[in-house]
Amino acid sequence: MIVRILNEGQWRLSDEAVRGLNSLDDAVEQAVASGDQDQLTRALHTLLDRIRTTGTRVPDEELEDSDLILPAADSTLEEVQQLLSESEEGLIPGVSAP
Amino acid sequence: MAGIFQRISMIFRAKTDKALDKLEDPRQTLDYSYQRQLELLQKVRRGVADVATSRKRIELQANQLNTQADKLTNQAQKALEVGREDLAREALTRRSGLQQQLSDLQVQHAQLQGEEEKLTRASQRLQAKVDAFRTKKETIKATYSAAEAQTRINEAFSGIGEEMGDVGLAIQRAEDKTAQMQARAGAIDELLASGALDDPTGTAKDDITLELEQLASTSDVENELARMKAALAAGPSAAPQAIEGQQGPPQAQQPPAQAAEPPSLGAQQAQEYQAPPAQSQEAPPAQPQGDLR
Hints:
A: 4-stranded mixed sheet
């Protein structure tokens, strides 16, 4: 499984490693739901650290799709919320035009 | 893993799919997409340069504020030396205001430096991906039939599309941060310009400096007066002391002076000796001339 951490790049994780992330994932979701910035920062740091240590980096010159995309470690609540509400434009400036 | 990460992943994927749906002849569009990637890469590089410029500006401002803070410390010191605690307090109060600005600037500087590093790394990653895309598009165009190419193009697009989305977000973020910093930096520039923080070039003097200078010049005048009065009062007794003091050194210097005399005499003699030959050189021709006539 390939996971992208926004602003950092991609990591390749074994299925086993991914299963180990589930509880950490819940903590991030809770923090976003409750609007707690400190909790979000802590939860994201723990989660991303785990990915960096259990995964291997996908080389820059490999073109591969990620299965999961995670916000950057220093993301603010607003940024994560904006990311979630984002749907129509702006994210892929390079290929959005016909 | 589900929830928000899946939702975020979906956004990226939806955008790539949407872009792909628009393609009529995918193989021709590969070149167009590549052009767009190069444009984005340029935008990222400009973003790095903008952030670096803002960072340098903050460094300059921090230097100016530091100079001001040092100056106010000196002023406080001087004010205390002449017994003006009120002025010293005013200078220190202003300095504490500056230090608050300074620590704000330091925080911003660290943030900008962080953005700059991130953007630099993002730019390197995107460069590598764009290079990979170029290779892949050439392979696709050369090797695959239209039907096969479609699948390959989807793969190439989704990989680069995601990276571009990521980098696009990073730029947007850096731009927002830089705009905030620039607004703040502008505010500090205005403060510096208005004289509230004093002019670091020293062309305009703030009130503390003026008052201290007045105090200094007054005390200089007083000191000079006091010195003159003392000299006058000491008058007759002081003068001989000065003369005696002056007599000492010349005596000690006499031996070297005598030693130096002979050479100087010799030099004079040499000049005297040289002069006659010059005359004698003129003379002999004169004599023959006289003889001829």
